[in-house]
Amino acid sequence: MQHKHLFLTINKYLKLLEVGTKFPSEVHLEIRARLKSQRDPHLILSFYNEVALKGIVTGHDAQSGIRFKLGEAIRKISARKVEAAYRLLKTQGPIHPICHQKILDKLACNRELEKGALDCYNNIIADGYVPDLWTYNRLLDCLCDANNIEMAWKILDDMVAKGIRPNVVTFNTLIKGFVARGDMNKVWHVFRIMNQHNIVPSVITYSLIMNNQLMRQARQQSGRYSIRNVTDSDIPLDARAIGCLFEGLGQVNDTRGMWLLYKKVCKRQIKCSRGVYNIVIKFTLKSGWCTAAFEVYEQMLAANVLPSLRSYNLLIKGFVHQANLLKAMHVFNDMLARGFPGDLITCNALIEGHLKQGNMTEVFSVLEMMREWKLKPDVRTLYAIIRYYVSSHELEKARELFDKMVKPEYCYPRPDITVYNVLIDGYLNVAGNFDEANRLFRQSIDEKLQPMLYTYNTLIRAHVKHRQLDRAVELFYDMQNNHRLHPDAFSFYNLIIGYLREDRGREAMEMKKMMEERKINNRIGILSNLLEYHKQHHLRDKIINVEL
Questions:
Q1: Distance (Å, rounded) from C-alpha 444 to C-alpha 52?
Q2: Whole-angstrom distance, CA of residue 329 vs CA of residue 307
Q3: For residues 249 and 261, is the Cβ–Cβ distance under 8 A?
Q4: Residue 301 lies in domain
Q5: What is the pLDDT of residues 59-78, one digit of tens each?
Q6: At a CB cut-off of 8 Å and minimum separation 6, what does 5 contact?
Q7: Which of 87, 188, 410, 434 has its CA 20 to 30 A from that of 31?
């Protein structure tokens, strides 16, 4: 038989509970089940507060059970509504510390409710109850988000005085607040306190500092201030923390700071990860420090850290860019000896290096190696070779390779506008073949490739040079009307010179006026002098020999 109180309303149940009415457990469970469908925060808080005050829930985990169920009940209710219900509940009588603590957790989620969270905390302390570490951390997070760091610091002192030992999350929260404020002295003070409490900084600790924009500015202005403080202090550093420091220095391109840190890490015999070695290699090569990069590579091998394909690619590309093909080949041969087949990045770097030395035999050797590794050349591979052929005035070989590129089975992806540009430039300036250059230009349009300003400037310059001014003017307006490209100073310069050569000073002046209206900086200072001289003397023969 069902109990008669099973059909009580929740409000009636609470009133009976307040006057000491005893209910069997099935009634409590029924009322709690009905609360799940409620969205009234005051009703929910009242229910769990009465349950806690009357000690209805028994057992070893009674208090944690009430806290968990209350948290679930108000999880989807906004913090502002919970705060309003909390104010009303305070006027109706005492609030159990467990409920107080859960309300504080909820209010601390919203930094705009900072005052409500502090009020709740003070009420908990006034009741003689000490919040747990989780609640303290949530309150500190709320205060730091609200930029009330001073109060957060007082709460930390109160927390320690009450015997609650802070953890790394506690200090990370404070560091986040001080970093956001830009107070790096306080950050290092927190580091020292962490060390006193024997708390090792985590990756998050260092990430909060190294990845913050204010910290980047501070480091740039103060000459690696953070590195001196971290590496020269007695703050314990592990491999993960070192990795964060190197990543932070990499983000601001501070190669000198990175090298200083690397030397100190080696001195303290801290083992670096492969990622750290890769970062140091990348930035030392970027700064042209080939000897230092090779030294890091040898130390990496000596530390029994096996390089990855990325490590080898960084070294090979870096040495090629620094015109040190000998070391690039040394690293490449070492890579093959360790059983690493190269990828497209490796092959492109080697091809670029051999082309710089004009060694086509080695280029074809790399291409053959790519076929063995079943690697298909990409646009960058063949662009480099075509550019070499064009610069060597071997247009037939360049065109033969280009015709292969347009076949999907030979190259992926298809040739882009940069490949067309280098061929167009070759036909115009090497062979003087306007028809083929224009045909390639139209082909790029048919392939739905967006022309570059460089493409148009190359064509305009060549047409002006060979006295085809009308075609040059047509291209000048075509790039604006059909491709939304804005001419630059060189576009105007080429046309003005063309007009002056044809003794059309008025059109040249109109072009200069258009240039000024568009606020294009006249970086070529001779324009004004040429126009003025032409206007005064009409000496066409003095202008036709101007070098384009």
A1: 77
A2: 16
A3: yes
A4: 289-365
A5: 334 445 555 566 556 666 77
A6: 13, 16, 23, 27
A7: 87
Structure token digits, residue 532? 């003025």
Separation of alpha carbons 220 and 203, rounded Å: 22
The last residue of one of the domains, among 347, 365, 383, is: 365
Provide the pLDDT for residue 347: 95
What H or E segment, with its residue span, contains residue 511? helix 505-517
Write the single-letter amino acid at 98.
I
Residue with tokens 């042209």: 288
Residue 16: burial class (beta carbons within 10 Å; 0-12, 13-18, 19+): middle
d(CA 526, CA 542): 14
Q: Please check whether residue 460 lies inside any domain of the structure.
A: yes
CATH number at residue 545: 1.25.40.10
Give me 217's structure tokens: 């500015």
Count of domains observed in the chain: 2
Compute the CA torsion angle 85, 90, 91, 95 (nearest 10 deg): 120
Closest CA to 171 of 144, 211, 148, 146: 144
Lookup: tokens for 425: 């430039």
In this structure, what token pair is assigned to residue 246? 């190197």
Query: How far apart, in whole angstroms, are the C-alpha atoms of residue 189 and residue 111?
Result: 25
Q: Is residue 79 part of a domain?
A: no
d(CA 102, CA 378) in angstroms, rounded, equals 60
Tokens standing for residue 111: 């930094």
- Residue 319, Cα to own-chain centre: how many angstroms? 26
Residues of the chain whose pLDDT is less than 70?
1-45, 47-76, 92, 100-101, 110-111, 203, 206-207, 209-241, 244, 248, 251-252, 522-548
Of 314, 331, 365, the residue at which a domain comes to its end is 365
Answer whether residue 54 is part of any domain. Answer: no
473 inside domain: yes
Which burial class, exposed, middle or buried, applies to 182 when counting CB atoms under 10 A from its CB (0-12, 13-18, 19+)? middle
- The vertex-165 CA angle with 164 and 167, nearest 5°, equals 130
Q: Using a cut of 0.85, tell me whether the model's pTM lies above it.
A: no
